[in-house]
Design brief:
binds zinc ion; alpha+beta; single chain; binds adenosine monophosphate; 5 strands; globular
């Protein structure tokens, strides 16, 4: 989609620190990490958020996203100790980039609270 930051990154028009890629999914380091592991996992096809993906997405991409999250966690070395997966949705969810993405955060004990 034109004027989408993450679409431009996927297309290689804007640089990023890629950590994983397959036919359906792209993953990169977050530019403002909140922990030693902070990776964004996103579908290559543009969906605005989890609501848009639920309406218009496909099962192959959903599974590929989940597998990519697992691969990223394994590669980062956080799978054994644990990590958090977050998808912000819309204004109250704190979403700032309207291209569906999952934050994979780990490398320290994040505690039990979902909201800091
Ligand atoms: P959200 O607030 O859930 O929409 O998350 C957007 C995330 O994208 C934030 O954590 C930003 O730090 C991150 N971000 C913004 N621009 C870039 C970029 N050019 N490369 C990597 N991460 C980015
Ligand atoms: Zn996009």
């Amino acid at each position: 989609m034109a004027d989408c930051l993450f679409c431009k990154i996927i297309a290689g028009e804007i640089p990023s620190e890629k950590v994983y890629e397959d036919d359906l999914v792209y993953a990169m380091k977050d530019i403002h990490p909140v922990a030693s592991t902070h990776v964004l996992v996103l579908p290559k096809k543009h969906y605005e958020n989890v609501l848009d993906f639920a309406r218009n997405g496909d099962a192959a991409t959903a599974l590929a996203l989940n597998k990519a999250i697992a691969a990223v966690a394994e590669a980062a070395g956080v799978a054994e100790k644990g990590f958090r997966v977050v998808a912000n949705c819309g204004e109250h969810g704190g979403q700032t980039v309207p291209h569906l993405h999952y934050h994979v955060i780990g490398g320290r004990n994040l505690g039990e609270k979902m909201v800091f």
